[in-house]
Fold this protein.
Amino acid sequence: MKTRGSLSELIFLIEEAPEGGFTARALGESIFTEADGVANLHDKVRDAVARYPYPREYRAWPGPNSNTFMAFLGREVPELGLALPANAIGKDFLPGGAIAAMAPSGSGFQLSAFGVAGILLAVREGLEFNVLGLNIGIDIANPALKLPGIGRLGMSAVIVD
């Protein structure tokens, strides 16, 4: 993600889908989505950014941080299909002290105690355990181990619909 001062931006490659509608892939990030119209998706993301509860707070661990922000966008706009890597510390910090939420990809659920301990089970992310902000897990859809500080060991992640 590009950062300029206190602002961050995502750059999306938007293409017309052969079956109609559009696809959008964030360059350099694990974000892919499909929508009937670009304007509608743009509005949803802009509204989610405005609702982010920690715009002026940053804690490297356990959050909120930049990974907390990206996970928040994924939960608020499930059409993004966002699946953050296991080594994205802060992605498991749930806003407002919540203990349960939809997974950032929108394809499952997670339980988390302030980003310090938790579990996530989702189609796109697989099964992840979070202990002290470090994730270990397994991805069944795209066979791989997820290890703290390393990320994925196995097949490259592909889009699972």
Remarks:
- Residues 2-154 form one domain.
- The chain has two helices and twelve strands.
